[in-house]
């Protein structure tokens, strides 16, 4: 500050001298008394450089953490993820903006050291030595506050129409079910807390972001405890907390007591007895660890405790949000279709091209129908319903699953479900073929092999394929069966080792037992598709027993999938019936 005062005083004197002699040449003025100005300027720059060093160190650490989050997230993002292209483009922009900022505030040696550290971890690093092409795109060097995947009110209404018991989960509240985006959010969350620890390790520590988190926790409690507004603001006074931190520093006992006080509010707001006891038990265990922490670990332990109480508050908010969902379920069941129609009508009216993919999908299917000799004119209501049902099944049974970019706009809320249905139908064909072959090969051994076959059927019906690629279905099935074999079932497999062969592990015997030629899988696929068509129709729930040689081993799973598909088809038809009728008339008139 003193350096700045000296510099400003001298500069004002120079300006006054020039104003007092407006007509004299600058070279003739008396500059001797202002000779110290250059020394004062250099002293100011030196002091300023020293003054900004802590801020630059803080920003450098934050940029390192932000770049780490992007580098870790890029390979986690699946090409089928929601808004994949937009997110990858955003990541590229963020990397460039953050790297250029890092280069501008560090020395060449420090920059190279950081970049080499990233390269050593296997990240694809760009130093961005080339000139900046589009400065406007890099003005904001912050990462997005919220990744795509957040639910809109229309999506939420859609979920409640499909499943009145739908509720948010504590791990993924308010976001669509997309594992890829979930992994990215988890990465950003982890890196953020690591960055917060770095803030507290600075000399002097930076408390700004920690205070903001405490304020968010308090605001979350205000949402669920509005009647405690005055008490919450008094006991979690972030202004006072920041003032005390600046004056007295990091008092560990006070920090633990602050977290303990927040947990007290959480317990008060938690009405469910079992849930409250679980919250108290978890906190008491963590509290003892915090109390016994060593001083050098205070930053990590405080952030750990703060993250814990923040999660508590978020879980409490999710619990309350689910209670509110139950209150609106009846309203959605009565008026949800009207709500969806009204809101989507406004959305689609904003652009002439808003339904291009839907029209292309509709017209392509109708064209194929007419080319095969079927008429699409003067269809009855039931025939129109069957047509719509078959069009959606056509997407499910297509050689490749729909993506967000290719899905018809009218099915935008269900594109991920359509992918899941596509994979599920393929899985049904694969397991029906392999279980059929296992049944044929085990039949000569009589009823003694029934436990093994029943076990395989159970695994086939229960296996979660949500995050398994189509080429991994059989391996995942084999691994699950092998991991859960009983001693008796292992003995059955041991007895199946081919004559003249050395002893084989159960998993290898299983692989031989279920081996199915491609022609068998193809035949099973046709049978599975036929079952899906019948069971997912409007009257599918009243269909008679469709158990046959193809479906019998996994019929419960087929029934469960087609029940879900039937609901999707029904809701889609109710919401978009007028739109589809218009497209039908357009096609007929053009034909």
Care to count the β-strands? 0
Strand content: under 5%
Mean pLDDT: 86
- Fraction of residues in helix: 55-70%
Give the overall silhouette: extended
- Give the class from helix and strand content and strand pairing: mainly alpha
Indicate the radius of gyration in whole angstroms: 33 Å
Low-confidence stretches: 137-146
Main beta-sheet strand count, sense and barrel state: none
Our count of helices gives 21
Run of helices and strands:
HHHHHHHHHHHHHHHHHHHHH
**What is the first-to-last residue Cα distance?**
82 Å
Please tell me about this protein's structure.
- It is extended, with a radius of gyration of 33 Å.
- The protein has 591 residues and is mainly alpha-helical.
- It has helices at 2-20, 36-73, 84-105, 108-120, 153-162, 179-201, 208-224, 229-235, 238-248, 252-269, 273-291, 298-348, 356-371, 381-396, 415-442, 450-462, 473-483, 487-495, 506-514, 518-535, 555-590.
- It starts with a helix and ends with a helix.
- It is 68% helix and 0% strand.
- The longest helix is centred in the middle third of the chain and has 51 residues, at 298-348.
- The relative contact order is 0.06.
- The chain has 21 helices and no strands.
- Mean pLDDT is 86; it is low at 137-146.
Task: Looking at this protein, list some descriptive labels.
single chain; 591 residues; mainly alpha; 0% strand; extended
Q: Helices, strands, pairings?
A:
Layout: H1 2-20, H2 36-73, H3 84-105, H4 108-120, H5 153-162, H6 179-201, H7 208-224, H8 229-235, H9 238-248, H10 252-269, H11 273-291, H12 298-348, H13 356-371, H14 381-396, H15 415-442, H16 450-462, H17 473-483, H18 487-495, H19 506-514, H20 518-535, H21 555-590
């Amino acid at each position: 500050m003193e350096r700045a005062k000296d510099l400003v005083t001298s500069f004002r004197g120079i300006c006054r001298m020039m104003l007092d002699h407006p007509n004299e040449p600058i070279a003739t003025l008396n500059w001797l008394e202002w000779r110290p100005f250059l020394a004062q300027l250099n002293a100011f720059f030196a002091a300023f450089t020293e003054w900004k060093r802590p801020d630059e160190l803080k920003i450098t650490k934050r940029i390192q953490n932000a770049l780490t989050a992007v580098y870790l997230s890029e390979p986690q993002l699946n090409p089928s993820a929601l808004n994949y292209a937009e997110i990858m483009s955003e990541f590229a922009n963020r990397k460039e903006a953050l790297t250029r900022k890092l280069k501008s505030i560090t020395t060449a040696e420090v920059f190279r050291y950081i970049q080499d550290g990233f390269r050593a971890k296997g990240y694809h690093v760009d130093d961005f030595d080339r000139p900046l092409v589009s400065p406007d795109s890099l003005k904001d060097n912050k990462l997005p506050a919220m990744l795509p995947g957040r639910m809109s009110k229309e999506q939420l209404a859609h979920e409640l129409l499909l499943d009145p018991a739908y509720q948010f989960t504590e791990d993924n509240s308010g976001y669509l079910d997309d594992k890829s985006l979930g992994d990215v959010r988890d990465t950003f969350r982890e890196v953020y807390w690591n960055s917060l620890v770095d803030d507290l390790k600075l000399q002097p520590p930076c408390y700004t972001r920690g205070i903001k988190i405490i304020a968010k926790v308090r605001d979350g409690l205000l949402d669920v405890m509005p009647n405690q507004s005055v008490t919450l603001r008094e006991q979690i006074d972030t202004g006072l907390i920041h003032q005390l931190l600046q004056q007295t520093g990091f008092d560990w006992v006070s920090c633990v007591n602050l977290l303990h006080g927040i947990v007290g509010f959480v317990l008060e707001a938690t009405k469910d007895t079992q849930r409250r006891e679980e919250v108290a038990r978890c906190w008491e265990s963590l509290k003892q660890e915090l109390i016994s922490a060593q001083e050098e670990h205070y930053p990590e332990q405080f952030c750990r405790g703060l993250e814990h109480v923040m999660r508590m508050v978020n879980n409490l908010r999710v619990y309350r949000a689910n209670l509110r969902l139950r209150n609106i379920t009846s309203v959605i069941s009565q008026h949800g279709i009207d709500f969806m129609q009204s809101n989507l009508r406004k959305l689609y009216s904003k652009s002439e091209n808003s339904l291009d993919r839907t029209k292309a999908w509709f017209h392509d299917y109708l064209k194929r129908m007419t080319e095969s000799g079927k008429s699409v004119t003067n269809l009855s209501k039931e025939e129109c319903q069957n047509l719509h049902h078959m069009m959606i099944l056509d997407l499910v049974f297509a050689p490749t699953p729909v993506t967000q970019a290719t899905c018809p706009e009218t099915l935008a809320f269900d594109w991920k479900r359509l992918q899941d249905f596509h994979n599920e139908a393929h899985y049904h064909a694969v397991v029906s073929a392999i279980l059929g072959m296992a049944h044929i090969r085990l039949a000569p051994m009589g009823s003694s092999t029934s436990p093994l076959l029943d076990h395989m059927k159970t695994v086939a019906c229960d296996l979660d394929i949500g995050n398994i690629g189509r080429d991994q279905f059989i391996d995942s099935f084999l691994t699950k069966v092998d991991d859960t074999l009983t001693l008796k079932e292992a003995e059955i497999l041991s007895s199946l080792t081919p004559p003249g062969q050395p002893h084989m592990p159960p998993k290898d015997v299983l692989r031989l037992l279920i081996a199915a030629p491609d022609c068998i899988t193809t035949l099973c696929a046709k049978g599975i598709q036929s079952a899906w068509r019948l069971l997912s129709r409007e009257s599918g729930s009243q269909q008679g027993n469709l158990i046959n040689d193809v479906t019998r081993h996994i019929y419960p799973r087929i029934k469960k999938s087609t029940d879900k598909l039937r609901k999707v088809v029904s809701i889609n038809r109710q919401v978009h019936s007028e739109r589809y009728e218009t497209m039908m008339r357009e096609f007929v008139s053009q034909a």
